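Usage

Read records sequentially. Each one opens with the input sequence:
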Amino acid sequence: MATRLQAERKKRNWTQRDLARKAGVGPTTIASLESGRSQTSRKLVDIARVLHLNPTWLETGKGPRPALSECEIPYLAAASPEHLAQLLAEKSDEELIELFRLFLTFRR
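and closes with the structure output:
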């Protein structure tokens, strides 16, 4: 992840401080991630968002690199809890695992 994060930041000609400010994190968070001292951060989703990247790709190198556009994002809205449950029941195990991983990221 350290290499991907640093490469994406440098492609934009941003300093670590620039990225930190845009993502709403401390500069030490970016420095720790880029140096490899930290392997993940609860702010990874925020960092990926400002870089317009898929957080899973940024963290693991797997999956699509670009962030999904708003119209491509599944689970945006459901008419009721029952409707949401129905939509989720139609998803694969892998999709559900990713969803819950992201959910836990936001809860921290």
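Summary fields computed downstream for this record:
- Residues 70-76 have pLDDT under 50 and may be disordered.
- The chain has two domains: 2-60, 74-108.
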